Amino acid sequence: MHMNSLAALALVAPASALLRFGCSQLVVERLDPLVNPGSNPSPHLHQIIGGDAFNVTMDAEAGDIAEKAACTTCQFTEDFSNYWTAVLFFKARNGTYQRVPQIPNVGFEGQTGGMTVYYMQDGLANYEQTSKVTAFKTGFRMLVGEAAYRTKEQANRFRQITYTCLQDMGTRFPESMDFPKEPCPAGIMANVRFPTCWDGKNLDSPDHMSHMSYPELGTFESGGPCPESHPVRVPQLMYETIWDTSKYNDPELWPEDGSQPFVWSMDDTTGFGSHGDYMFGWKDDSLQRAMDSPCYVNCPTLKTQSVEEMNKCSVPNTVDENFDGWLDALPGGRTGEKA
Ligand SMILES: *[C@@H]1O[C@H](CO)[C@@H](O)[C@H](O)[C@H]1NC(C)=O
Ligand SMILES: *[C@@H]1O[C@H](CO)[C@@H](O)[C@H](O)[C@H]1NC(C)=O
């Protein structure tokens, strides 16, 4: 019965949606309305993209961000979600830090900083994209990764939070769980993939993670089933952030002890603390509509805006601090010394 209805659905409506789009920088600042709501500043620096309703507090009382936002830095104009990660710094031999610039993916030229965002029904290599997914609901939010992790054993809790050492802008493998150990000619791409099974009830949870789960068997890519506790299969959300580390590739600039010189804003030199935050903010049913329509990357059911329009949307930095130039410490006072 179940199989029959699925087969019938596949015959009637081949739903193949994979959204891949660019979003320019909205702001870089020390706020984290998911993990540290109300705290200005939050402990470490973030880079944020998406709708301009981004703020220090974004709880239910602050309202639906898709209604509050007036613009978005994303290519699809119905997407007022906010997406953020930590910020990458280079640490010089003399102990000072410089923020590493972000650059867009191939095909998104002109976009200022930001990221590439994906919503997938099946693994990236599956051009059919036939598995049904349920879009996130208004007020939904989640976190993946743990900023305090510094070992592979810890980071194994998460799947697919990785780095790609870009030999050129088209490099896509291999991926590593820790920072690349050698200079990467075209930069370092940080990849964050979120879990794909939702408990179907909670828009958030105390750790911002336990309302989500990985598939019970296999993986999202292999079509693994969701566990009974988290039965609702949602799109796989993925971020790609390209950090242009190319100007730091001179071996003379790298540490003399042979270690690599990059450090996340939460003072992580391992790379195992990488994390991504998500606040859903698609207008009305636009995400479900897009996921139910046959489209691969270019989705005519969604309205798009130009790169110029994307770049125009921003919010002022509400935390009064400088993080450009050579810094004596990471924003928030972290000097790289072990506590
Ligand atoms: C951010 O929140 C403050 C109140 O905490 C409010 O005054 C301000 O308008 C909000 N900004 C946006 C862009 O929603
Ligand atoms: C520290 O090192 C960087 C990179 O080599 C250099 O540009 C900067 O001027 C140095 N700062 C000081 C205070 O020496």
Automatic annotation (TrEMBL):
Signal peptide: 1-17
Pfam families recorded: DUF1996
Domain DUF1996, residue spans: 32-282
Keywords assigned: Signal
Name of the molecule in the record: DUF1996 domain-containing protein
